[in-house]
Amino acid sequence: SLTERLSGVFKKLRGKGRLSEADIKAAMREVRMALLEADVNYKVAKDFCNQVSERAMGQEVMESLTPAQQVVKIVNEELTRLMGGDEPTQLHIKNKGQTVLMMCGLQGNGKTTHAAKLGKYYRKLGRRPLLVACDIYRPAAIDQLRIVGEQAEVPVFEMGTERPELIAQKAMAYAKDHGNDIVIIDTAGRLQIDEALMDELVRIKQTVEVDDTLLVVDAMAGQEAVNVAKTFNEKIGIDGVILTKTDGDTRGGAALSVLAVTGKPIYFQGIGEKLDDLEPFYPSRMAGRILGMGDVLSLIEKAQAVQDDKEAEEAAKRMMANKFDLNDMLAQFAQIKKMGGASALLSMLPGGNQIDPDALDEKALPHIEAIIYSMTPEERAKPSIINPKRKRRIAAGSGQTVEAVNKLLRQYEMMQKLMKQAKRNPKGFMRRFSGL
Ligand code: GDP
Ligand code: MG
Q: pLDDT per residue over 117-160, tens digit each?
């Protein structure tokens, strides 16, 4: 995989005091190979490597990072840029009147599922979406939309096997009458691109004013997905992509090439079959995932902003080495606050989404601090000795309940377990990180 190849590359850079031009060249050769293996478009891979080497050579080596880390940092930043920058690109959702989203793409790529996912997503944001059944060729398609619409609690407009453009037009009138402000049109797909399909989509677009033509593509298709995107863009004009089944894709080739090849951003990604499995597409997170290290680099960057480099490195090292105890946890809270809160921090750690951010909620921090302050230094260093009797004492001393003490200890144990898991997993982030 790309992840493995890249970590192999960076391991080779390990221990070098300074990065020579030859080092960078050799590393970039490997990176290019890794990208090509991940099914990244040839030209995209080449341009990418040129970009990275240019930056790597021009830059003076930062004192706080090893040369290998520095290259990883640049690769990470360039990957992010390649996919659209730091923030997700927003759909063109209007605040007044009807916004029309049209799903298009090949059969089985996830149009119907993602029409419903988007419907649910916007309903939860307080909008009133309407799903429109324009896949008229298989009776099962309308049923499927009706079922997922029901699950999403989003109404479905259908007119059986009427012409799709007529259905779309009537749906607009229906939406106006019923106060639906986001109209999501599900369309038919084919196993392959054909003229009839394209014509049909063009006719829908000529009949209703589509704000976002969303191409739904399966991430697992790799380079082929990018070719599909290119063709759809040329034939009907797309505004952006919904990249589906990223839960199954480990290669990342599609995600990396789409923007560079089509000029169109990825708006959302599908991360599973359930209707909640939809996320705005964060290029930085995808870059981190491709590099296999969470958003650890941005974590380091943020840490650097509030601490001096050495201290940050120490804290990170202790965390990575699974050595942090409750004393460390306490010491980190001040930093957590400065770094934008616990949930922000957790979202950056690999596996951090497994931790309930509520349990480390900003509002809960003073309570947690109070509890830890009420422990003896020994208890803080070795939480396993905290028995029920000690718990009652700590609770009383901190003005908290025993349940709150238990909750904190559970949270601490979970974090430790997570660190251990990550360490045990040879392909996991810990090893790679400490191997830099
Ligand atoms: P359509 O033909 O383009 O409308 O595709 P469907 O919406 O019917 O989806 C085809 C299959 O892919 C269904 O079994 C979906 O459950 C599945 N699917 C769609 N999106 C995702 C995703 O993001 N992850 C996973 N694992 N499966 C997905
Ligand atoms: Mg469908």
A: 999 999 999 999 999 999 999 889 999 999 999 999 999 999 99
Is 190 annotated as belonging to a binding site? yes
CATH number of 99-290: 3.40.50.300
Provide the strand spans (E) within 219-303: 240-244, 266-270, 278-280
**Is the model's pLDDT at 294 over the cut of 90?**
no
Strands 266-270 and 278-280, how do they pair?
antiparallel
Query: DSSP letters along 399-411, please?
Result: T--HHHHHHHHHH
Residue nearest to atom 28 of ligand 1 (CA): 273
Q: 364: helix, coil or strand?
A: helix
Q: Model ipTM?
A: 0.99
The residue whose CA has the least distance to atom 9 of ligand 1 is 110
Known binding residue 297? Answer is no
189 labelled ligand-binding:
yes
Structure tokens at 396: 């009383």
Contacts of 22 (CB under 8 A, 6+ apart): none
* 218 alpha carbon, closest ligand: 1
In angstroms, the CA 55 to CA 49 distance is 10
Task: Identify residue 195 by its one-letter amino acid code.
Answer: E
The domain spans of the chain are 2-82, 99-290, 293-434
pTM of this structure: 0.69
Q: How far is the CA of 181 from the centre of ligand 2 (A)?
A: 22
| Cβ pair 13, 74 in contact under 8 A | no
From 102, 106, 113, give the residue whose CB has the most ligand 1 atoms within 8 Å, as the site to mutate: 113
Question: Domain 293-434 class?
Answer: mainly alpha
Q: For residue 235, what pLDDT is reported?
A: 95
CATH architecture of structural domain 2-82: Up-down Bundle (1.20)
Report the C-alpha gap between 226 and 228 in whole angstroms: 5
Pocket-forming residues, ligand 1, beta carbon under 6 Å: 105, 107-113, 189, 216, 244-245, 247-248, 270-273, 277
Q: What value does the mean pLDDT take over residues 402-417?
A: 84
